[in-house]
Amino acid sequence: MSWLKTVIGTEKAVIAMCHLRALPGDPGYDSKKGMNWVIDKARDDLMALQNGGVDAVMFSNEFSLPYLTRVKTETTAAMARVIGQLMGEIRVPYGVNVLWDPVASFDLAMAVDAKFIREIFTGAYASDFGVWDTNVGETIRHQHRIGASHVKTLFNIVPEAAVYLGNRDIRAIAKSTVFNNHPDALCVSGLTAGSKTDSALLKVVKETVPDTVVLANTGVCLENVEEQLAIADGCVTATHFKKDGIFDNFVDESRVARFMEKVHQLRG
């Protein structure tokens, strides 16, 4: 039995993203609408996801585009305010993802009692955000310094909008990531949010590290969830749950419900 069962309550878990709208300091932030509007929209999406039956949610600053690899204090503070105001209404296990800063994600997780975080913890990349380096040794030491050893770590090993600077295949990456870092899960992604995770790639990762939880991290939808969950231990889903399956839109509860009905059928 994996930690998905003990922490989230089921194997083949569906973790739904609750995408926060642009926050103070972000280029897209609407200061006229203000933070109360951001909170209201986050609440609407959270309710639609929960009412639709998802197993868990993960809050992220998805609309903080373009992303920083070391976020500003105002971003973490704003996310803490949003989640803090929603905590009394959250009915499922939840995690956080401060894009793309694992130290800030741990800080936020401790502030709001999150059960897991997803991040780029390891590797060096050429990316849309410039040359992107990480320091997993320091990050994990920070996790333990602040008392976050219980927070589950979801390692994204196929970063969106980035390629490894080193010439390593996915088998080597998966094997060394697990050996060196003991992640709680590996996330396998497509090119961008909403892009399908390659099933062949997913299969290679799962076969390479069969004792580690492997999640399909992007692009899982009603049409491919059977194929993806036949390989992966669970999935992280966002774009498919939005109106018309469009990234910029808000969550459509009916799409969530249809997807989760299919997942329950697959679980038997």
UniProtKB/TrEMBL annotation:
Q: Which domain of life is it from?
A: Bacteria
Q: Name one Pfam family in it.
A: BtpA
InterPro entries of this UniProt entry? BtpA, RibuloseP-bd_barrel
Question: Sorted alphabetically, which PANTHER family does this protein's record hold?
Answer: SGC REGION PROTEIN SGCQ-RELATED, ZGC:162297
Please report which protein family the annotation says this sequence is part of.
Answer: Belongs to the BtpA family.
Tell me what this protein is called.
Putative nucleoside triphosphatase
